[in-house]
Amino acid sequence: MLSLVLKLALAELTISLLLSRGIYAIEVPLDLRQPPTIIKQSVKNHIVDPRDSAVVECEAKGNPTPTFSWRRNGRLFQLGRDPRVTMRRRSGTLDIAFYSGLAPEDYEGEYQCFATNIFGTAVSNKILLRVFKSPVWRRDILEPVVINQGLPLILPCNPPPFFPEPHIFWMNNIMMPILEDRRVSLGLNGDLYFSHVLVSDSWTSYSCNARFAQTIQQKNPYTLKVLTSECPPATLPVPPTARNVAEKVPSFLSPPGTVSSKVVLRGEQLVLKCIASGYPTPVIRWSKMDGDLPTRKVKLEDFGKTLRIMSMSDENSGEYVCTATNRMGFVSHTVVVHVQAPPSWVNKPTNLVLTAEKNGRLLCRANGVPKATIQWMVNGEPIDSRLPNPRRQVVGDTLTLNSIQMGDSAVYQCNASNDHGYLLANAFIKVAPRMVGLRNQVVKVIESNRTILYCPFFGSPLPELRWVKDGLTVGVDGGPYRSYPNGTLEIRRARINDQGSYSCVASNFLGRAENHVHLEVKEPTRMIRPPEHLRAIRGSMARFECKVKHDFSLPVTVSWLKNGRHLSLGWRLRREDDSLTIPNVHREDEGNYSCVVRTELDRVSASARLIILDQPDPPTDLELSDPTERTVRLTWVPGYDNRSPIKEFLVQYEEDYWEPGWWKNLSSYPGNLNSVILPLKPFINYRFRVFAVNAIGRSLPSRPSQRYQTSGAAPDAIPTNIRGVGTWKTRMDIRWDALQDTERNGPRLRYLVWWRRRDSREEWKNATTYWLRYTIYDADTFTPYEIKLQAVNDFGLGPESNIVIGYSGEDRPIAAPTDVHVSQTDSTMATVHWTPVPYKTIMGNVKEYKAYYWRESSQLKWLGVSREKKSKGFDSTNSHPMGVLTGLIPYSNYKMYMVVANNRYEGPPSSIIEFQTTEGVPARPRYFRVQQRHMDTLYLDWDRPAEPNGILTGYTLKYQVVNGTRGARTQLDFPPNTTYYSMHRPDRYTRYRFSLAARTQLGIGEFTMEDSPLFTTEAFTREQVDIATQGWFIGLMCAIALLVVILLIVCFIKKSRGGKYPVRDKKDLPLDSLEPKDQDGSFDYSEEDNKPLRSSQISLDGMVKMQDSDDSLVDYDGGDGQFNEDGSFIGQYAGKKDRDDNEGNLSSEATSPMNAIYSLA
């Protein structure tokens, strides 16, 4: 009995001052009877693989142990009726087995778990169970897309719906991805956009591909047919650029229109993409209407078309503008971005353990955009559906219970929801006659601070309590300790030696109970470098320091306040361990900044003020007064200087006639003035505006004043840049620059022009014109004139200009240079000398002496040349001028003559002279070939240079091995009449590099280089059998075939006439003049057929080498019997028979087969 009383005392000892308060939140130990609490559940969107069993989790604790039930799609789920669904023991977790041909989709739906015991029911989230299944893409047959070149095009993708959204990409007909560029774009919806199509876009097909969770599916490809106004020939490649395409102003393909909106959740990324059509391809730029783009979070992708902002916050909402621009114009689209958020807990309801007759309150507060809606439930049922309870009140997010009773234990659910999701929280209210407090707690306190040690107790009869430290009772005799009847021990001023373990002992006649409290005394937190007041220029960086010293065992938290409110750092502000940095400060950043340092025990803070220095506000209330002919007084009210004194005011003016809307500087005035007299010009309708300038910069302009019109006057200004320019030999144009529009001083501005010949006593001539040029038609050729000018308007004459000298026009020179000769010639240069013409014969200013020269011939008689005429000018004014002709061709005969030129004409030519260039080194050979005629023989041939530049003395050939071990370079010299060379190589796989150059007496010319071909068996075989593709061989075979056919026809005719008959019966000539024949008179060609080919001989390298010969088909009578590659055998044979027939009977030509062959040839 005594032990039972002791256990009860220990259990009741923790009843404390909390009971006197009546309400508290607590984590109730599981050994106390309590309602259920959900401790584990599946995610809200639960996707399962149909190949495996589905598991829907639901775990809960409680005392007594709770039982579980499920609702599916809002209805009670009868687990016993479906053998495929089982619930785990002592758990609410469901196992759903997909087998026996059952469709897994039948189990999709919304599941909710209920955990119940005698004190109430806890509810899980609504779990949406979905089975993963591969989407099916319709295999539509797509017709070819026909479109005109230059028009925009959208190829839709339209993938089947799937969660999560698939990754879209496009591929061409060779399975290569379609890459984005400024013209081709992939939309956020997966469509493929062309700002304008080109002919090259039709060279491939386009297929949309979607990568789902486990599969990749492809849509049937699109085929494009691009129509153009000009169709190039099919054999010519079509360039990928657009031709004959009209340039177009940009317009948006995506998103359409000028304004759209987008909602993005807080913390998620914002992706905006603008795709525009137009030609040339528009350039996309992004901006933000109400501020700058968040540079630290923004990324521009896809050639600037995609704007991506990571981790959106409320300050990132606003209007984002994308502008598409090309040289035809621009177009803008505004995207209004709203940052919203799903519900998040501010005050999540917590479990309450209350004593009877006390009041309890559950708070359920959640943030969200739009604002979260709060719904209360009791034991899983809406609170409105329960019987009314007069002691229970629900006001928005607060549920209150008054005078709690034993039967009021229940589990309350709070559902906070908006358009983007919901939060569900369970909290139980437990009514208990006793409570268990914390044991062996640790209390921390800052040195020199007051602290209280609690020791809740309860017993019947009421126990006696005392505190013990280090074996000594404390709090009974005063001093730093004070003990209260409810078990509390107060330490008025904690010291380091006060820390340690304290024991509270409660005892009555039934027993004794003990609890321990450990006290730790910590070093106070001190600020050693507080923030200081700052003055910062707008756009610069401000930095506050906040360095503290604290107890190393206490975690510290630093936060910043602005004007007493928590400072949201956002993307721009940077907080470090001991500082706050504000980059690019602006006026809204001005205020008091406080650094607050917190530990779990204390808090220190310090404040400083940030003052923003900015450019002044613009002046206001501009007023004009005291008008005169050339002045007016301007008065204004200065704007706020934004903490930086105004140094000066800048006055600008605008006139509405010549350049309306264009503001120009008038004058500046000290910053202590706000009323000045402005100097004005006549005949201008003024209005003014004022800028204020301080050390930071210039303000925005003030609002314009009213207009003020000045009266007219004669011009004050003199035209500038006066000049006389000769345009013809008897003409001179007098030209000048116009007065500025503000210098006219009156209407109908014109110019009075004066002129006369220089150094003459003639009177000044004058004329008036409205133009900026006046032409004198009766001037002498290239004569100097004195010129002056003055401006005139309706109010009078302006001042005269200074006298300037101008010249009339130039005429054609009448003399040619003399004594033209050439000296110091070499292979490419020649020095030219001449005697200048008299100055008066030039009829103008000397521009240059020009030499015309051409290559008349080469000193090599056989070489033809181009006689293209060239020229070169020389600027020479001394008495013995000279010039150098460069770029001449060596070993050539040149002719030249010279002329003198003024700024308009060239004079007559001088006499033609001749000169020669010396010999030089030759140019490269016309061609150089290396061929493989045999397996072990290389054949080299070349041609002489196009420009020998002298008498060729030979050729130099160098070669060396280029694969394997490199050997020494070999050099061979050849005479000038040798243009080929055969060499034997020991190894057919050895490759050589040959260099060939021609030589003259002056040296070796430029080398040309060739490598020997690679050896292959196929190449050699092809070389050996290549005769079958030669034209002469094909002609020979055709001739033989035709001969056989004709012989067969002749035989057939002879047979049809009764057999053989002698040919001599048909001839008039004697038989002995005929060719050898058979006894029956027929021809025998065996001797002719067996004759050797006399025209061929075997070369040293084993190849058949043909001798040079004329074409044997040119002359059949004089054929020399050679057998040539071009089919001359036919001519030889036919010519011989023709001669024999002419010597015999000429009457047989009509029936002779040889004559037929001859005629055919």
TrEMBL record:
<feature type="compositionally biased region" description="Basic and acidic residues">
    <location>
        <begin position="1065"/>
        <end position="1080"/>
    </location>
</feature>
<keyword id="KW-0130">Cell adhesion</keyword>
<dbReference type="GO" id="GO:0007420">
    <property type="term" value="P:brain development"/>
</dbReference>
<dbReference type="InterPro" id="IPR007110">
    <property type="entry name" value="Ig-like_dom"/>
</dbReference>
<dbReference type="Pfam" id="PF07679">
    <property type="entry name" value="I-set"/>
</dbReference>
<feature type="domain" description="Ig-like">
    <location>
        <begin position="343"/>
        <end position="430"/>
    </location>
</feature>
<feature type="compositionally biased region" description="Polar residues">
    <location>
        <begin position="1144"/>
        <end position="1154"/>
    </location>
</feature>
<keyword id="KW-0812">Transmembrane</keyword>
<keyword id="KW-0677">Repeat</keyword>
<keyword id="KW-0325">Glycoprotein</keyword>
<dbReference type="Pfam" id="PF13927">
    <property type="entry name" value="Ig_3"/>
</dbReference>
<dbReference type="InterPro" id="IPR013098">
    <property type="entry name" value="Ig_I-set"/>
</dbReference>
<dbReference type="InterPro" id="IPR003599">
    <property type="entry name" value="Ig_sub"/>
</dbReference>
<feature type="signal peptide">
    <location>
        <begin position="1"/>
        <end position="25"/>
    </location>
</feature>
<keyword id="KW-1015">Disulfide bond</keyword>
<dbReference type="GO" id="GO:0005886">
    <property type="term" value="C:plasma membrane"/>
</dbReference>
<dbReference type="GO" id="GO:0030426">
    <property type="term" value="C:growth cone"/>
</dbReference>
<keyword id="KW-1003">Cell membrane</keyword>
<feature type="domain" description="Ig-like">
    <location>
        <begin position="250"/>
        <end position="338"/>
    </location>
</feature>
<keyword id="KW-0472">Membrane</keyword>
<feature type="transmembrane region" description="Helical">
    <location>
        <begin position="1032"/>
        <end position="1053"/>
    </location>
</feature>
<dbReference type="GO" id="GO:0098632">
    <property type="term" value="F:cell-cell adhesion mediator activity"/>
</dbReference>
<protein>
    <recommendedName>
        <fullName>Neural cell adhesion molecule L1</fullName>
    </recommendedName>
</protein>
<feature type="domain" description="Fibronectin type-III">
    <location>
        <begin position="718"/>
        <end position="811"/>
    </location>
</feature>
<feature type="domain" description="Ig-like">
    <location>
        <begin position="135"/>
        <end position="228"/>
    </location>
</feature>
<dbReference type="InterPro" id="IPR003006">
    <property type="entry name" value="Ig/MHC_CS"/>
</dbReference>
<dbReference type="InterPro" id="IPR036116">
    <property type="entry name" value="FN3_sf"/>
</dbReference>
<dbReference type="InterPro" id="IPR036179">
    <property type="entry name" value="Ig-like_dom_sf"/>
</dbReference>
<feature type="region of interest" description="Disordered">
    <location>
        <begin position="1065"/>
        <end position="1091"/>
    </location>
</feature>
<comment type="function">
    <text>Neural cell adhesion molecule involved in the dynamics of cell adhesion and in the generation of transmembrane signals at tyrosine kinase receptors. During brain development, critical in multiple processes, including neuronal migration, axonal growth and fasciculation, and synaptogenesis. In the mature brain, plays a role in the dynamics of neuronal structure and function, including synaptic plasticity.</text>
</comment>
<dbReference type="InterPro" id="IPR013783">
    <property type="entry name" value="Ig-like_fold"/>
</dbReference>
<dbReference type="InterPro" id="IPR003961">
    <property type="entry name" value="FN3_dom"/>
</dbReference>
<comment type="similarity">
    <text>Belongs to the immunoglobulin superfamily. L1/neurofascin/NgCAM family.</text>
</comment>
<feature type="domain" description="Ig-like">
    <location>
        <begin position="36"/>
        <end position="124"/>
    </location>
</feature>
<keyword id="KW-0732">Signal</keyword>
<dbReference type="GO" id="GO:0007411">
    <property type="term" value="P:axon guidance"/>
</dbReference>
<dbReference type="Pfam" id="PF00041">
    <property type="entry name" value="fn3"/>
</dbReference>
<feature type="domain" description="Ig-like">
    <location>
        <begin position="433"/>
        <end position="522"/>
    </location>
</feature>
<dbReference type="InterPro" id="IPR003598">
    <property type="entry name" value="Ig_sub2"/>
</dbReference>
<feature type="domain" description="Fibronectin type-III">
    <location>
        <begin position="924"/>
        <end position="1020"/>
    </location>
</feature>
<keyword id="KW-0393">Immunoglobulin domain</keyword>
<feature type="region of interest" description="Disordered">
    <location>
        <begin position="1114"/>
        <end position="1161"/>
    </location>
</feature>
